[in-house]
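task queued by scheduler; priority normal; single chain, no ligands, no partner chains; default sampling; output format set to structure tokens
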Amino acid sequence: MSVTRTINALVVALLLVVTSQSMAVARGTMRDATGAVVICTGTGPLTVLTDADGQPVGPAHICPDCALSVIAGLAEAFDLLPPAQRVLQVTPLVLNPPVHDTVPPRPRARAPPLV
């Protein structure tokens, strides 16, 4: 159990180190695209981002600082139903055991017998 816990802790720590480094690299390599060229192809439009000189800058990376804002945008796209206003009334079930059918408790010994 102790060995498994240690191995799991090391794997999680290694995963954290690797992913945090890749996020730092992605944050530092953001390219500044000043324009976009739309090319119409037979399969559909293709957008190429360009810099100030008109040279293509490659695909845009997802900003790690704003990646979770996509979830907020998706939540607005769907019409969410309001919560149900129906109230459920619950009445407690009280069980009253019959008094006369129970066996009275027997007295118990309080100490070992004298020898």
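post-processing summary
- Residues 57 and 112 are 92 Å apart (CA to CA).
- The radius of gyration is 35 Å.
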